[in-house]
Design brief:
The protein is an alpha+beta fold. It has a domain of 105 residues: Dynein light chain 2a, cytoplasmic (Beta-Lactamase, 2-Layer Sandwich), CATH 3.30.450. It is globular and about 65 Å long.
Length: 153
């Protein structure tokens, strides 16, 4: 009786919490490894907009917005960076005020929106799948280095 109750509760929890305990999708991993081995990403760009477009392809993300913590847009891959910078900064600062030790805010809404701080800048990344903290930091390091080299830091 307890076994069937446990299975029932696990199925309910999986549906409610969107829990998936399956193994890593090996076919997806092989596809990404094949994709990255065939693609050569030359991220040498003259301006920040071109550089961010190249990073979108390299990291397989839809949008990248970089702003200050108060919502001033620094760079973006979309056409409305000011509105996104203000909204992202407000959301991140609210979550940070309620949960001071939080590092990343991830929201699932028409894709995944990931907000995090790196070197006193707020990075907002939208992608079809959520990225790990390591992937997000690698993306931010590349952007931060480009901004430093161009004197836009």
């Amino acid at each position: 009786m307890f076994g069937s109750a446990k299975k029932f509760l696990m199925r309910v929890a999986e549906k409610i919490l969107d829990v998936d305990e399956t193994v890593e999708p090996a076919t997806h991993i092989r596809f990404l490894e094949d994709y990255s081995s065939r693609m050569v990403f030359d991220t040498k760009a003259g301006d920040i907009a071109e550089f961010l477009r190249l990073l979108r392809k390299k990291h397989l993300v839809d949008e990248i917005v970089v702003s200050t913590l108060n919502g001033s847009a620094i760079a973006s891959t979309n056409g409305n960076p000011v509105a996104q910078a203000i909204t992202g900064a407000a959301l991140f600062n609210y979550v940070k005020s309620e949960m001071p030790k939080s590092e990343t805010v991830i929201v699932k809404s028409n894709g995944w929106h990931m907000l995090f701080v790196f070197n006193r800048k707020l990075y907002m990344v939208k992608a079809a799948a959520d990225l790990s903290n390591i992937e997000l930091k690698a993306l931010a390091k590349e952007i931060d280095l480009f901004l430093s080299n161009k004197g836009l830091n």
